[in-house]
Amino acid sequence: MQRIGVFVCHCGSNIAATVDVKRVVECARLEPGVVFAEDYQYMCSEAGQTKIADAIKREGLTGVVVCSCSPRMHEATFRKCAEGAGLNPYMLEIANIREQCSWIHKDMETATEKAVVLMRAAVAKVNLNVPLKSGESRVTKRALVIGGGIAGIQTALDIAEAGYEVDIVEKTPSIGGRMAQLDKTFPTLDCSACILTPKMVEAAAHEKIRIFTYSEVEKVTGFVGDFTVDIRKKARSVDIDKCTGCGVCQEKCPSKTAKSEFNRGLSKRSAIYTPFAQAVPNVPVIDREHCIKFKTGKCGVCSKVCPAGAIDYEMRDEIITEKYGAIVAATGFDMISLDKYDEYAYKKSPDVITSLELERIMNAAGPTGGHLERLSDGKPPKNIVFIQCVGSRCADKRGKSYCSKICCMYTAKHAMLIRDKYPDTNVTVFYIDVRTPGKNFDEFYRRAVEEYHVNYIKGQVGKVLPQPDGTLLVQGADIIDGRQVLINADMVVLAAAIEPDPTARKLATMLTASIDTNGFLTEAHPKLRPVESPTAGIFLSGVCQGPKDIPETVSQAGAAAVKVIGLLSKDKLLTNPCTAKADELMCNGCSACANVCPYGAISYEDREVRGIGVREVRRVAVVNGALCQGCGACTVACPSGAMDLFGFSNRQITAEVDAICR
Amino acid sequence: MTKAEKQAELIRDISGVDPYKCMKCGKCTATCPSYAEMDIKPHQFVSFVIRGEIEALTKSRSLEKCLSCFACIERCPRSVEPGRLIDAARQLAARERGGGFLTTEEVPEMCDPDTPSQLLVSAYRRYRR
């Protein structure tokens, strides 16, 4: 028989205002196995924990039930406390009488009754608890960062600086990501390339960092501390070791019809190309879809002109397999497609552009050499209209429900830069709300209005009509002044919503990391664990987790790096002992458990099974304790009841249900 | 429940519109071809329903001026769709007048240059018995 202590927490008024804690204590004393029960205002405080530890020693407790908040909140806290007092931590259970009771009830009578029942169930469980011991697993001291934008670069640099090896996998031919496409950055207006390219070079030169560009993660197996990852290195057709980056091949390439991805399709590029001049590595790739050699077999100009003999048409995709202790997702974002927004005439007029396209137009290295001009006729625009929230904050099926967060600030930046460089240009911004929380952000926006006289109008644009004279008639609302506004604009810029890069979804499946309804990777806790995925060993950096600007991305990238370093600095990891195990005598090898296991932890072996009247070799399920996360799916799927979960055994759960129904 | 509150609820029922979803972006007003002739603008319809000022709505000139072109319904980013509120206000006004149904025979009589034909088509669809 166990000697159980029950500790009921008031949680200030969180629990005590709705649950009669004294009555829970009284009822607890009547439960079988309970030898001690008391309540306290804050059980998680030092004084509260001391009460538990003292009682364990004084009363010789063999099991503990803490009636408090969700186990997600403080199970680890209390188990550590129990361990400190000499009790096996898995002999302590939580009865959640806050989230699942006091917070959702208003009537004290009902809430108290429920709290008593929850306490009773936990006591019934502890009566059947057995001490469990964590196993150990090793840690591969190397991290993988997926995505080579500013988030991935920063995370990799921070990890490498701590002395650990890092690999960056980037799907495009160069690292740099979205930030490399930007012209200036808010709120300081420093040039994006000037602050990013040194970091790219630093990452490439760092002895602890390896960069796989033009590569994609193909397969991920394993678990925290011991991941095995297949990386597909797409055939570059250029030998990265021989190429000197002289650029002659790109100059001489006769196929110049492909749209430049880097310039958002606003300019053409050669079939052999580096996305931009400052690319890292400065080694081109051959786009086989546009290469004449690959299409017709005749050409080979690049190979002839290459002084280093680096061109290799025979090159094939190569798959390498590497081991990692931790994986960081830093897959970034893209802008949404504007196909469904006919009213803004984005498809109809080349002078209706997205903000990212404007970014390229204003960039000195962009398609217009940094001159602000209309793409239709090359003339400088005199009237520019910016439209905010295109596809953001939408409750309809066309857009996204969230605020894209960065648009208010970059639009203020664009407006200001245009007014500064071309003072005779009128700039109008249609906004729903101007959202500028952040250090020096609102001051920045106010500067656009007060110093640069950008015309901010609260209201949306209903439609943009291309006119025969080449202008764009913008019909909008000014809902503060109560009027409809008509503007003959030369250029319209749409602040399109941002969305997670499409690769994030596929990656999440490979990593068994969860994603939300918008496709953003989910953090383990929105406040307390913002850079960790709920899947152990997977970390999140940058916009793949949610919209954020560069300063926030860099902060988060550093935070993710610290979490990775913390993990890699350990030699061994304690594994969760609450894993599944099959009873060989009952298992009939039907594969039902393996089919539902999300972690691939179940395999089958032919084993000699010995029982009463049984002695035969049979195919039975075997659980890899290191892979098993203890989700319990197999225990439910098993038709013969052979699968059981340590810490949540079928007997324990039945006892809990019995206690509730008593 | 006051009469105004009952009417506001009725308008919400008829239209199926949740006015609280509106974020006051003004896209309906921006998009409306009859804007200039309306006394209560499309985006204001939502506020009138929230405040329960239904009588002002049912007496509004906007009911006649709305073309039922549904541009505001099509483009509303919050799926509030103020055009439906206008339509519901029309129905309410018609019910209050009593016998507010259009027959096929009546339609030609109502065709005059000042009444947009789209309005008649919409009204016929909605109010025929």
Task: Offer a quick outline of the entry.
By secondary structure, chain A is of the alpha/beta class.
Structural notes for this entry:
- The complex is a heterodimer of chains A (662) and B (129).
- With 662 residues, chain A is of the alpha/beta class.
- Chain A has 5 domains: 4-128, Rossmann fold (3-Layer(aba) Sandwich); 143-234 and 317-331 and 515-568, FAD/NAD(P)-binding domain; 248-305, no CATH class; 334-499, 3-Layer(bba) Sandwich (FAD/NAD(P)-binding domain); 580-646, Alpha-Beta Plaits (2-Layer Sandwich), CATH 3.30.70.3270.
- Helices cover 28% and strands 25% of the residues of chain A.
- Chain A is built from 18 helices and 34 strands.
- The two termini of chain A are 20 Å apart.
- The mean pLDDT of chain A is 95.
- By secondary structure, chain B is mostly helical.
- Helix content of chain B is 57%, strand content 0%.
- Chain B has 9 helices and no strands.
- Chain B has helices spanning 3-15, 27-31, 42-51, 54-58, 62-65, 71-75, 82-97, 106-110, 117-127.
- In chain B, helix 1 packs across helix 7 and helix 3 (42-51) packs across helix 7 (82-97).
